[in-house]
């Protein structure tokens, strides 16, 4: 693993670290961005800058196997996206960049096993929700020390809010972000965190966004109620700016390059025939939250077949990816909780309209597909809600004895707050939700998954007080397993 992040040399343009992503059997994507003054537009000259890159089999770079030059352009904030190909499969590599007389820190990444190969096991983590103001990234400090093949980020990589003095461990450096320059500076502020840099340098990331990379709870072209960009045209300009900055700061291939306010982010990643990752985008194509937003009694509109989380094209794609998969484990990475959860104990019902509970017909189509087509070991990986959950996915949530068609693991946040007053009511409602095997709303952290040919082991890893600047060690709060061929999770 690369050595710990050091203070960047004075004058170096590599203040935002390095990252890799999109791992494939014979290549990956390398990222950095040149930014001498990261919180103020980057501080680079308004001209193209050549950046040399190297990939080696060893950290000393005595055996360089790939190298080249990428021209970082001011139109893309001097970001660097290098697609490396024609490498041996299932290998670890080291990489670095050089520009203007400076060398970046070293990163480590890997190629995936070949599509026809049968790896015995793999380890990955999934994370989400890293509000910079809510705390320090102790989770990433610990995650970087784990033995992982990759990390899946399920969204809310940045938050759009302005400074919030009353609740912050540290502050956003500007008011609410709306313009392209705003979003670039906000991403840069997050990327200056050394713990986040360390995690990116240690493993390839597979990323997707949720709402806060643009605006809280937006739905396709519809902004949040009370938005600072209430008109459709103004919001689409804002979305275009947010998507552009997201691409500029993530290890993404040019296939995800935004075209105005549109960005193709749903895609697949494969780890031999052991695991297929189907990564969704449930923000860009969804219909508006029914009956308004929030937690409330479910209205008839929430049951309408026209309500969609993914849009018709992505829904067809998801089913095709699962139907055609030859992987033993089919992992669906997506943003908001898929399982039903009635937040009202006893008589009456309360559901979260921003989750799949507001899109019941769309959920039923997906779960019905899992029941009918039986893809191998479907497991849903979810973020968004700043808390830890484990659910059995039922073919009919109104009938506890109905078929369990899959499993959902919901990971807690890196830092983002879960409201303490919600914890007791959720616990009180547990008897009304027998498919829910676990809930914790107290701790931040990340989730580590260990896959092999017989089972998937899932560790909920937590850290101490994220508002405390001193390092906080990670411990395991709970462990669950899913057995091959047996949907549903059991605590171990």
Number of domains: 1
Question: The CATH topology is what?
Answer: Purple Acid Phosphatase, chain A, domain 2
CATH class: Alpha Beta
CATH 4th-level superfamily: Alkaline phosphatase D (PhoD)
Strand order of the largest sheet: 11-10-9-21-22-23-24
- How many DSSP H or I helices? 7
Strand fraction: 25-35%
What does this entry show, briefly?
The protein has 492 residues and is an alpha+beta fold. The protein has seven helices and 24 strands. The strands form five sheets. A seven-stranded mixed beta sheet has the order 11-10-9-21-22-23-24. A seven-stranded mixed beta sheet has the order 12-13-15-17-19-18-20.
Give structural notes:
This protein is α+β, with helices and mostly antiparallel strands and 492 residues long. It has one domain: Alkaline phosphatase D (PhoD) (Purple Acid Phosphatase, chain A, domain 2, 4-Layer Sandwich), CATH 3.60.21.70. The protein contains 7 helices and 24 strands. The strands form 5 sheets. A 7-stranded mixed sheet has the order 11-10-9-21-22-23-24. Strands 12-13-15-17-19-18-20 form a 7-stranded mixed sheet. The two termini are 30 Å apart.
Provide key terms for this protein.
alpha+beta; single chain; Purple Acid Phosphatase, chain A, domain 2; disordered N terminus; seven-stranded mixed sheet; 16% helix; 492 residues; 28% strand; 7 helices
Topology:
Elements: E1 18-24, E2 27-33, E3 49-56, E4 64-72, E5 79-84, E6 92-99, E7 102-103, E8 107-110, E9 121-127, H1 138-143, E10 150-153, H2 180-191, H3 194-202, E11 205-207, H4 232-248, E12 267-271, E13 275-279, E14 295-296, H5 311-323, E15 329-334, E16 351-352, H6 360-373, E17 378-382, E18 388-394, E19 404-410, H7 423-428, E20 436-440, E21 445-452, E22 455-462, E23 475-483, E24 486-491
Parallel strand pairs: 9-10, 10-11, 13-15, 15-17, 17-19
Antiparallel strand pairs: 1-2, 2-5, 3-4, 3-6, 6-7, 6-8, 9-21, 12-13, 14-16, 18-19, 18-20, 21-22, 22-23, 23-24
């Amino acid at each position: 693993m690369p050595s710990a992040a050091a203070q960047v040399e004075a004058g170096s343009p590599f203040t935002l670290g390095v990252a890799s992503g999109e791992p494939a059997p014979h290549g990956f994507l390398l990222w950095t961005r040149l930014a001498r003054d990261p919180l103020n537009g980057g501080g680079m000259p308004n001209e193209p800058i050549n950046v040399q890159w190297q990939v080696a089999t060893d950290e000393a770079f005595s055996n360089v196997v790939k190298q080249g030059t990428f021209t970082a352009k001011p139109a893309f904030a001097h970001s660097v996206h290098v697609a490396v190909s024609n490498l041996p499969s299932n290998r670890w590599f080291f990489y670095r960049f050089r520009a203007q007389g400076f060398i970046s820190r070293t990163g480590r990444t890997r190629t995936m096993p070949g599509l026809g190969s049968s790896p015995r096991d793999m380890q990955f983590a999934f994370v989400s929700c890293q509000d910079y103001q809510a705390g320090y990234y102790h989770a990433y400090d610990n995650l970087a020390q784990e033995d992982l093949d990759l990390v899946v980020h399920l969204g809310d990589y940045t938050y759009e809010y302005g400074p919030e003095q009353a609740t912050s461990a540290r502050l956003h450096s500007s008011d609410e972000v709306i313009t392209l320059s705003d979003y670039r500076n906000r991403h840069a502020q997050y990327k200056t965190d050394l713990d986040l840099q360390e995690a990116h340098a240690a493993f390839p990331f597979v990323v997707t966004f949720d709402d806060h990379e643009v605006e809280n709870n937006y739905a396709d072209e519809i902004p949040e109620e009370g938005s600072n960009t209430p008109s459709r045209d103004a919001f689409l300009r804002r979305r275009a700016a947010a998507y552009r900055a997201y691409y500029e700061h993530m290890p993404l291939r040019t296939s995800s390059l935004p075209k105005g306010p549109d960005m193709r982010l749903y895609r697949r990643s494969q780890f031999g025939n052991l695991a297929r990752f189907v990564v969704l985008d449930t923000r860009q194509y969804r219909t508006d939250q029914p009956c308004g937003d929030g937690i409330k009694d479910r209205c008839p509109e929430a049951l309408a077949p026209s309500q969609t989380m993914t849009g018709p094209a992505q829904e067809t794609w998801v089913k095709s990816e699962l139907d055609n998969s030859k992987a033993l484990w089919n992992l669906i990475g997506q943003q908001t909780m898929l399982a039903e959860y009635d937040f009202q104990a006893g008589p009456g019902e309360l559901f979260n309209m921003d989750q799949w509970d507001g899109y019941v017909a769309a959920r039923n189509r997906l779960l019905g597909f899992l029941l009918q087509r039986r893809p191998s070991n479907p497991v849903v990986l979810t973020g968004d809600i700043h808390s830890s959950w484990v659910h059995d996915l039922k073919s009919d949530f109104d009938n506890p004895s109905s078929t369990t068609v899959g499993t959902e693991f919901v990971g807690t946040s890196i830092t983002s707050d879960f409201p303490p007053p919600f914890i007791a009511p959720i616990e009180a409602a547990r008897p009304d939700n027998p498919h829910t095997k676990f809930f914790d709303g107290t701790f931040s952290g990340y989730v580590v998954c260990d896959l092999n040919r017989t089972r998937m082991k899932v560790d909920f890893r937590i850290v101490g007080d994220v508002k405390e600047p001193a390092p906080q060690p990670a411990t395991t709060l709970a462990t669950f397993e899913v057995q091959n061929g047996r949907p549903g999770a059991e605590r171990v």
